[in-house]
Amino acid sequence: MRRREFLTIVGGAAAWPIATRAQQQSDRIRRIGVLMSVSMDDPEGRARFAAFQQALQQLGWSDGRNVRIETRWAGGKIDEARRYAGELIALAPDVILASGGDIVGPLLHVTQTVPIVFTQTPDPVAAGFVASLARPGGNATGFTQVEYGMAVKWVELLKEIAPSVTRAAIIRDPAVPEGIGQFTVIQSAASMHKMEVSPVDIRNPAEVERTLTEFARLPNGGLILLSSALANVHRDLIIKLAAKLRLPAVYPSRQFARAGGLSVYGSDSIDPHRRAAGYIDRILKGEKPADLPVQAPTKYGLIINLKIAKALDLVVSPTLLNRADEVIE
Questions:
Q1: Cβ proximity of 189 and 156 under 8 Å
Q2: Which of 28, 95, 114, 292 is most exposed, with the fewest beta carbons within 10 Å of its own?
């Protein structure tokens, strides 16, 4: 045998283990953990998850074929979020989707290495999840839910849809750090419209009912609901109270209008889950969360529920109706 032929055979044989390992790596079923902040029976939550799955499939990732998706639903309960965070990390996922700002903290508490892509997160810098939006720097990145300037628009919308309102109850989750910043912005905007604002904590549903009932004893009241997992959990209670107490209300996302809320201005909560699939695809192909910038919302919507407006004896101006992306009649 000639020396050149011998070296070719030996070299090819040496490459076999490398090629085999590469093939095994590419054929390995990847594992994606998904932690949803809402409950499994929440229609908006199911729509978000379905959009995420569909986008993954379009990128070539099919559950049961080349990827396995492990999903947990926290139902707005922080203790459940902590428990499920530990369960998911124990499964050694390649990456985790965290749908909801209140569940990112529990995940980061149990891992500083597993990549996390978050959605519906108001201010990840203030919350300490990332170093900066442009350069996250750690194992988490994703998509923000709101910009603080939106809080100004909530005040303006409430005043436009109900000009007589001079007092507003601001319903918030005190455990969500971003709510403090949003309330500060609302206070500033409200003073320009000669409107007084009062914070109402959402942690205890009975306390919410008692506080709003007391608030509604005086005339010209309205309410603004800040986004949080608990806001979704207690959605029906808050909408029912607003109707019973005849309080014009502004909500942060579309499911509130479709459940009977008066008006909504907020970012699309479905689109970030499609975009999150793109980030997860890139991470599964070798990119790092630290190098993927946190992105702001790109789609916003204004929804007016005319049926509720009529029940509250409100006349919605043609100008506002023309601006609306959706009018529910």
A1: yes
A2: 28
CA distance 229 to 48: 14
Using CA atoms, how far apart are residues 288 and 283, in angstroms rounded to an integer? 6
- The amino acid sitting at 98 is A
Beta-bridge partners for 155: none
pTM of the model: 0.78
Strands (E), the chain: 30-36, 67-73, 95-99, 116-121, 140-144, 167-172, 196-201, 221-225, 249-251, 263-267, 300-305, 326-328
Paired with 263 in beta bridges are 250, 304
Q: Does residue 18 have a pLDDT over 50? A: no
Buried b or exposed e, range 221-258, using 16+ CB within 10 angstroms: bbbbbbbbbbbbbbbeebbebbbebebbbbbbbbbbbe
